[in-house]
Amino acid sequence: MKFTSVFDIIGPVMIGPSSSHTAGAARIGRVARDLFGRSPKWVKIHLYGSFAETYKGHGTDVAIIGGLLDFDTFDERIKTAFDHAKKAELAFEIIPETANKEHPNTARIVMGDEAGEMSVEGISIGGGKIEISEVNGFKLRLTGGMPALLVVHDDRAGCIANVANCLAMHSINIGHMEVSRIERGLTALMVIEIDQNVEDRVLQQISLIPNITKVSKINN
Amino acid sequence: MDVLFHNVRELVELAEKENKLISEIMIEQEIKISGRTREEIFEQMDKNLEIMEQAVERGLKGVQSVSGLTGGDAVLLQNYMAKGNSLSGNLLLDAVSKAVATNEVNAAMGTICATPTAGSAGVVPGTLFAVKNKLNPTREQMVRYLFTSGAFGFVVANNASISGAAGGCQAEVGSAAGMAAAAIVEMAGGTPAQCAEGFAITLKNMLGLVCDPVAGLVEVPCVKRNAMGAANALVAADMALAGITSRIPCDEVIGAMFRIGQSMNPNLKETARGGLAATPTGRAIAEKIFGSALKVD
């Protein structure tokens, strides 16, 4: 079943006008920020398909910026997110693209600061629900509806078991897990959906495991 | 996933067998699926109700959308009703104006509760806050109104669609109106079976409705579609309460809606390429707002 909760039907509470083009866009921005792990200093937002054609009228641009500033779908500050971005010294650029993506409502967020860069691609699938379809070139499928961990690691034997062990020690149950790699023996990514939010100290422990390069999380 | 009901027939049978309200079955399922307590679930829905109430109040004071296409019609309707010469009756027009108010707030980037989507967010609260003045429900009954709506929406979302891009406006405002009709029937003291009749009668009359938003914006004709969704829901609820039944069972009406949505031309499913969006005026509006006309196949 696609819809499991009554609050998928009566909800979300959100700033209008469109659950897909505004609320979904805000969620993509917020998940991107979560994955980056801190406030980026600069961001380039590439919009595709229906997002590119109608973003002005739907406030898709301000909604994504609002999400990057950690605003929820119902935060009134979304409307004036550009002003808040200036205050927060977040430099941004909105780039409507003509290329076609698989899904009509796609946004690609490239962000960074002096310590690093990250790219996140998200799609808005309707009713405010979203999926993250790509992170730093890795194809994946992440709904943002459950807490999740993203672990970038070297493609070596034992990495996956070590991370799973660490979660088990903290009694954290894995609901769904996907692993992917760009090329055998090089960089790989684990996407782990879990049943509860994890504390930062768990993230730190995972990052100390050999061959782990980066750990980020999405809370819910 | 172990749910209590997969379709309207199971929902009604369960409510009848256990002598419970539809809203109660929805609450019990939510407890089961989410693992949260009744109090937590009730509290969250109560917050949604509060948001709906605030949106209606704001819309009745008058708002304008960013594009300037919509706003102010809820006020016009309330002023007209105050003169006392309305033909279709003040309860019905009150529901219509409050549905319009909600969607005008939505178009103006105000805060709303998607029910089941943002574009169809006016129908359920619009009817609720109009019927409230006649039935004098308790706060709990008002929250239950949303659970009853949610139960029917849940079935439609999983067995058909609540997305205009997937099923046209029949899937959005059509579903919202059916959900509202069922909830009105329960609040007015009708049986679970009558709730299902109210839903079926409503949706039957919204089958085939296309999603053709001018300039791709959730404004024209969305605001007025919410108005008529509210009116449709109230009349169908009255018919169901009068004992009128749908010859085609509720689940089959939902199935028909799904198949109609699948066979609908993509130009008529939220792409702004057909219907009202493709009229000369619709295209001129798009060009004025975005500087270029939307592509029409």
UniProtKB/TrEMBL annotation, chain A:
Family per similarity comment: Belongs to the iron-sulfur dependent L-serine dehydratase family.
Residue span(s) of domain ACT: 148-220
Organism: Lysinibacillus antri
UniProt superkingdom: Bacteria
Reactions it catalyzes: L-serine = pyruvate + NH4(+)
GO MF annotations, alphabetized: 4 iron, 4 sulfur cluster binding; L-serine ammonia-lyase activity; metal ion binding
Keywords: 4Fe-4S, Gluconeogenesis, Iron, Iron-sulfur, Lyase, Metal-binding
InterPro entries: ACT-like_dom_sf, ACT_dom, ASB_dom_sf, Fe-S_L-Ser, Fe-S_L-Ser_bsu, Ser_deHydtase_bsu
GO biological process: gluconeogenesis
Cofactors named for this entry: [4Fe-4S] cluster
Name of the gene: sdaAB
Pathway terms, separated by semicolons: Carbohydrate biosynthesis; gluconeogenesis
Record-given protein name: L-serine deaminase
Automatic annotation (TrEMBL), chain B:
Any GO BP: gluconeogenesis
Catalytic reaction list: L-serine = pyruvate + NH4(+)
GO terms, molecular function: 4 iron, 4 sulfur cluster binding; L-serine ammonia-lyase activity; metal ion binding
Family annotation (Pfam families): SDH_alpha
Cofactor: [4Fe-4S] cluster
EC number: 4.3.1.17
Domain (Serine dehydratase-like alpha subunit): residue spans on this chain: 18-277
Alphabetic keyword roster: 4Fe-4S, Gluconeogenesis, Iron, Iron-sulfur, Lyase, Metal-binding
Superkingdom field: Bacteria
UniProt pathway: Carbohydrate biosynthesis; gluconeogenesis
Membership in a protein family: Belongs to the iron-sulfur dependent L-serine dehydratase family.
The protein's name in its UniProt record: L-serine dehydratase
Taxonomic lineage: Bacteria, Bacillati, Bacillota, Bacilli, Bacillales
Gene that this polypeptide is encoded by: sdaAA
